[in-house]
């Protein structure tokens, strides 16, 4: 029998929700996260002094929590809940999304912060249950990531966002590092799990130290962040799939660009210690725009089919928001670096800030267009088939592997998903995933799991 997501090998009758029910939940639970993203972008324009659709000084102060906890936290919690395949797991994205809604809509932020704490705590439980099903180090590192999220949500009750920035950085970097090892496990070297645990454990320690001793701790955070990023760049399958075509190349370009921005953030921390003023802006946006949002763009064609049960096929125009994001972020960073010497550089910073918002909005529009066109293609195939039944798409059936090589023996031994198998790892996602990657949330079975 095919290994279930997170090691869940119980019969489907023992699970607490049907695939059809979970299919609808994912779409509805993502709406508050999308609202948090749009509200956070509006708040970012207000903070930059640019015209905003709904200007509000109160919401502008919530820009960071809305983007990191409200949007990224909700999306990550939803993906993990889908991997859990239990109804109560969807409480995590529901609470995080509700927290984002109340933060944005209510004048008093207390209720929104409490909901975010409850959502982060539930996400910790979800990740812990996933680890108990399959004691995989990458899953344990994912649990450590959501512990950072919970700690940040707790501290935000008393501290400003700038004070808990190290924990927010550790949350997003640790979670994405765990996902990359889990997805690209077949390409990782022997002992990769142990190095991942060591590096992310060190990141957790220095993130805590950076809160207590901002200057020395900030420099240490930069050193560990650079080490973890260099290790990921060295072993990530993206270094090979960048030479492929189509979706694998697009995803690899987005991931490698994201790693580059994470190195920029690490360098600023090493040089400056506690980030202040322009350095703070560079660290925040290099991490959460250059790195995190680039990773979102890279993984969206794989994650969306799994979580929302909609097909997001690759289209060349997906490069437009990706290139726009990185070019405008570079303009923003350069504007900060030279503003002391060239007063006109502030204009470049403003253009970069506006371009960052435009890039994310263009990506949303491009993704919606790709989904709409992808939904029409199977309908046309069904109409073209005798009797109205569609066969397997010829393009997918004949699609070569990402780097033109046949899959490894271990990769060939992985069973294809069947009806009623794991929600995460849809056939469309697996067909378009690069060599060496498995479906998100579907770690390679351990020797214990392979036994009958």
TrEMBL record:
Residues 1-20, 380-452 are annotated as: Disordered. Residues 384-399 have a biased composition (Low complexity). The keyword Nucleotide-binding does not apply. Keywords: Membrane, Transmembrane, Transmembrane helix. The chain crosses the membrane at residues 28-50, 62-79, 86-106, 112-131, 138-157, 163-184, 196-214, 220-238, 250-271, 283-307, 319-342, 348-373. This is NnrS family protein. It comes from Kineosphaera limosa NBRC 100340.
